[in-house]
Every structure is written in structure tokens, then in C-alpha cells.
Amino acid sequence: MTETALRAVIKGTGSALPRTRVSNAELAARVDTSDEWITERTGIKFRHIAEPDETTATLATAAARNALDAAGMSPDDIDLIIVATATPDQTFPASATIVQHALGCNGGVAFDVAAVCSGFLYAFSVAESMIRAGSAKNALVIGSETFSRILDWEDRATCVLFGDGAGAVVLCGEVGTRGALATKLHADGKHNELLYVDGGPSTTGTVGKLRMRGREVFRHAVTNLASVMHETLEAADLAPQDVDWVVPHQANARIIEATAKKLGLDPNKVVLTVDQHANTSAASVPLALDVAVRDGRIRPGDIVVLEAMGGGFTWGASVVRM
Ligand code: UT7
pTM for the whole thing? Predict the structure, then answer.
């Protein structure tokens, strides 16, 4: 590995969750479901649900502040903000510009990326490419979602699966061996009808509700995630046994277990937060990363694989030396 390469290094992580935490039992009082079904099929125990004053942008801003604190940096150091979200505060402008203003950043570039549950991987890839190209120095990459606002609370097959939250990383250009080593992204638009929202500004003029054919998504998720992780590790010239931690998209504990098994990865090296947060879409990977950094599991120098798959379909993975 060349010591002279400019790479995007994760200098700090942060996250934010809505105040209200809802257990499976509390949900079962409102929806025809049970703690037993949700736990057994998904591994989910709790999710956080945003109150009216909590939005994608407010959660993103709080996560960004925590990441800046962890990096020992100020908003003025940041020249690029990307928010990955499928649940923006407004159809436009981008939630990233709301975050920019709330943080008090002066100047720079701010925009949103829409790749649903893979959104953080897509945003991360754009930011690290811009850093390597010299068009940004210090970036905030944020995944933030309020999926509770687009759930059909009458559809038990989907409403029990998702939660709200935000996660963020500060990425800085640095010459050395740390940073993003390889990132691979994919999309296949023919699967739109398996996971989508049945509304939008240009079609219905409404926001719409989430629709999913869970069993089909499950099958694609395990295949695509195992394959993109393999591809990304190969691009980084690493093998599964070189990996210190996997930080997967937190959709379903069974998907995470099956994917790790397919790659021959030690399940003890996989960060699992789906029990506490449920599926927070684009927020899930940076949220889980922040948990494992703050509790001391992930340490500087560790080889970490980030991966996600979601609506589109879109999927991707990144190998990072922390
Ligand atoms: O982040 C984007 C990626 N998304 C995902 O990765 C989600 C992928 N899919 C999954 O995680 C799983 O497919 C689910 C958790 C969504 C569903 O698990 P499953 O084992 O595939 O169950 P199923 O959809 O095949 O449903 C099994 C049964 C059905 O009843 P019958 O037809 O067998 O009588 C459902 O009606 O479970 C029933 N069911 C429920 N029962 C109680 C569905 N939802 C519920 C519920 N509570 N909430």
C-alpha cells in the first residue's frame, strides 16, 4: 500500500436519535403484531420515532455536531456537506443546505443524495471521490431519515421494521495509509416494484407510503451484499480474515447473519444495532459505526467494511482503515 496516496480519513463519528423510543410490545398495542414475531423474524426490539419538532434536518444537524466534536473540528472547517436521505424536510431545497445553515457553516457545497438504504454508501463514495480529486478538503457525510412519516401504519408487514435517526462522519483528506481504501456501488432499476414509495412530487403530488415485498427483498439482499463485499475487499487487496469489523446496514439480523456466513466472516466481528434502532435506512450504517466507535470496539487502524442495500435496488460497500 502506498504511503503517499491522498485518502479520505474518518476523523470523527456522531449520531442522533429521536427522544421517543417504542418497544415491540408498545407497537403491538396499536398494530396486529407481537414482540415474538418481530424479534424472531427481524431481531428488532426497539425503534425511535420522531416527534413533530424532530425532522430529518434537525437529527442530521445533531449528528453532525457530535461528529465535529469527536473530530475536534468546527463548522467553518467544513467545505462539503452531503445528506443521504429518502425523507427530506422539503422536496427542495436539499436538507444538506438546511443543515449547513443550522451549523453556521460559511460557504462550501451542500446537497442531498437519494439512494434510500444505500444512501450513506453513495454519499460516502461521492465525498471521498471529491476529496481525492481535490474539490473538497473536509466533508460531513450524513445519513438521516424519518421513515415513520412515510410508513403505512395499517401495514404490519412494513411498519414494524423501520425507525428514525441520523448518523454522521467527518471525512478529511490526508496522505498516508488510513482512510477509504476501496468503494464499490451498484444499482439495478428493474426491481422498483419490490421496494418503493407510492407517491412523489411528479406523479401523485403527494409524499406517498412505503411498500415492500419483504421476502423477495431479503433474497436479493443476501446475494448482493455478499457479492459487493467480496468485490470491495478484492479491490482493496484484502481477504475476509483481514477484516476487524463489519458495519452492515441494519435491516434484519437474519440478513446480516446470512451475509456474514456466506463470506465466512466471524459473526463476533459484525456490529449489530438493529435490535435498538430497527431499520433507519440511510442512517443505519453511520449510526451503527458511531455506536461501535464510541463503545471502543472500533479503534484507529482497524479495517472496517461498511455495506448496505436498499430500494432501487441500490447496493454498495466500502473498506476503510480507521
Ligand atoms: O432496508 C431495505 C431492505 N429491506 C429489507 O432488507 C427487508 C427484507 N425482508 C425482511 O426483512 C423479511 O422478509 C421481513 C421481516 C419483512 C418478513 O419476514 P419473512 O420471514 O419474510 O415473513 P413473510 O413476509 O414471509 O411473512 C410471514 C407471515 C405472513 O403470514 P402467513 O401468510 O404466513 O400466514 C405474514 O402475514 O408473517 C405475517 N406477518 C406478520 N405477523 C405478525 C407479516 N408481518 C407481520 C407482523 N406481525 N408484523
Answer: 0.97
ω into 147 cis (within 30 of 0) = no
Three-state secondary structure call for residue 93: coil
Q: Could you report the per-residue pLDDT of 195-220, keeping only the tens digit for each? A: 999 999 999 999 999 999 999 999 99
Q: How many domains does the chain have?
A: 2
Range of the domain at 315: 180-321
Burial-class residue 129 by CB neighbours within 10 Å (0-12, 13-18, 19+).
middle
Domain's final residue, options 160, 176, 192: 176
Q: Tell me how far apart the 2 most distant CA atoms of the chain are, in Å.
A: 58
Question: Would you say residue 1 lies in a domain?
Answer: no
Distance 156 CA to ligand 1 centre (A): 9
Cα(214) to centroid(ligand 1), Å: 6
The catalytic site residues sit at 117, 249, 279
